[in-house]
Amino acid sequence: MEEIALYALHVDDDPSLNPWTFRTWFLGIGLSCFSAVLATIYQFKPQGIVLSATFLCVISYVLALVLEYIPKSGFLGRWLNPHSFNHKEHAAILIMSSTAARSAMAAEVIAVQRLWYTKTPNAAVCIFLIFSSQILGYGVAGLLRKILVYPTKFFYPANLPIMSLLETLHRKKVDTKPQLKLFYWAFAIIFVWELIPEYIMPILTAVSVFCLANQKSLVFTNIFGGGNGNEGLGFLSLCFDFQYIGSGALYLPLKTQFNTMVGYCLNIAVFLGIFYGNIWRAKDFPFLSQLLFSPESNSTSYVTFNQTAVLNEHGVLDESKLATTGIPYMAATFASYVLTQNMAITATLTHMCLYHWDDLKSAFDFMSLASIKSLVKPSTWMFWKKESRTEEETANMDPHYKLMLRYKDAPDWWYGLVFLASGVVGLICIYEADSGMAWWAFIVSVILASIMILFMGAQYGLTGFQLHVQPIIQMIGAYLEPGRPLTNMYFTLFGYNSVGQGMLLLQDLKLGQYAKLSPRCTFAMQMVGTLVGAILNYVITLSITTNQREILLSIEGTHIWSGAALQSFNTQAITWGGLAKQMYSWGSTYQWVPLGLVIGFAAPLPGYFLHRLFPKVGFNHLNMSIICWHIGWLVTGINSAIISFLAVAFWSQYYLRRYKPEWFLKYNYVLCAGLDGGTQVIVFIMTFVFFGASGKPIPFPNYWGNNANGNIDFCKLNPANSG
């Protein structure tokens, strides 16, 4: 798949193009503010939607064209319109704004404290906490860039549609006229179309023949329902809303899609088997939920667990209070999800070692005797001198990276300084926030994050699949500092969030390499975007948790607002951080959940041995880490889109790529960009105009295409959830 980066993208550069313009900073900071606000809003939606870089690419281009109408003469003209808008300015704006377009996990921690705890840190601590936790992973990933960015094989698939769009917009219009035409048509059509499934006729988000045929069966709801959050598995439903289908169907490699499909089929079987087999008292709790439930619950009355009743004023477990309330339960499907997540994490470590050890082992070269001896050589620490390379080294380089050698790199000590500064600030914040986390536990969380960035970053660069390592980080934190759910959240923040941020930096560094943006410019854009995002993440989180508090605490929420992500995070913090001994130790209800880590280590071995015995069959295409993660894929969200997602993926990555390769290389990623951009522009507009983000919502009238008083696909509404 990595050859796409060489054939679909041009390998050339014009060093005279200047990205360091006032226009870059003006649009970059403005769009960073916009994207940080929208990303934080999406954190409180029923479906976890990430603000697309394609959307930001389109908006920045349109705004830059507007600025080009300003006369070049005069003070304002020289600043805002110094020359024609070039692709390096565009790439710099895109990296800055997309860096801000991630709702910080620290904002989740703050939101959870505001919803379920009595004490929250002050504004200054919150902002510094967000910023330090966002850039800690940058330092680690930056130091690993020679391993995970520069080689051709690490191509980060999500970059391909972005770079295709950038090239289409900035090359000679004569050369790119067909691509531009397709982009504009795709953008316009999806822009108009999305108004229908999103607002006028939501039934198109989840067309379920089975639910329409039988609207009185909760079994049908669990299996075939999927138009509302936590409704059902959405099996055989069709979705015509591209927001939920997503652009990943068009750019993720076929191998990733195949393993996704295998995991999806297993997910349906496992969830139904667990629930209807009544494992872990499954039928006494909702089919899908992220909340904790009291042991008093039954199939007709769900009693949520009151966590404040078992914690003291410092957020520490009081075992005498727990003895009174009883040990809580999770929805069985959520417990299964955590188990298979654990399997996926350790399966990744085994898979990468079995199939990509030669790439990974170079990360540990610094521990060799030869590397230690080289530290005393002047050429090692004289960073101001240009590094010389042999002809053999340059001949084997990635062609895109070879063109980057003319620019000064951001030296390792810059990333080392980011790592050190963010670590010191983070350490201060955990004490100022009264998290209860010890300094040594903070160091352990950082070490874990560094190891995970290496393995998960390699997987992400190769497959485009970003594995969430939250469960294993939370488990380790729970055993290091037991009985402290609040402490566990902060341990997870630095141990898990740093991994996700590190992978995003690696992807942006690769994008900068493809765009031939100087490494120092890329570094500056990432830092500024993250700082802007930190401030606005806090402000918007404060507003939404105040104004939508009751909805965020409910089981299903609405089709506009949902606390599912926060509930999931809080539930895992309570179960791991506060009740790990009672819920996960051997002999307890969920004893098999942590053992998923052990099973995961062995999961890739059968496929690997079969591949060695029968190398031509294709067993090496099985990626058990991706399969295991998708066995819990349907645990929350709008599940009606999965069949449509897989159908689009098959059409793009199999049919087009195999039978229409020229069309695929020329148009596939441009089409992806147009659909993504048009969708997110109209969704943003509707969020503020119709869905109440800026005030009172304006609902569309209730009729057969808009079942506003129940599930939008007409599946039976669970009476316990509706209350």
Automatic annotation (TrEMBL):
A Gene Ontology biological process term: protein transport
GO CC annotation: membrane
Entry-linked InterPro entries: Oligpept_transpt, OPT
Name this polypeptide is given: OPT superfamily oligopeptide transporter
Main location: membrane
UniProt topology in membrane: Multi-pass membrane protein
Molecular function per GO: oligopeptide transmembrane transporter activity
Compartments it resides in: Membrane
Keywords (A to Z) from UniProt: Membrane, Peptide transport, Protein transport, Transmembrane, Transmembrane helix, Transport
Family of this protein: Belongs to the oligopeptide OPT transporter family.
Parts of the chain that traverse the membrane: 20-42, 49-70, 123-148, 182-213, 233-254, 261-279, 413-431, 438-458, 521-540, 592-611, 631-656, 668-693
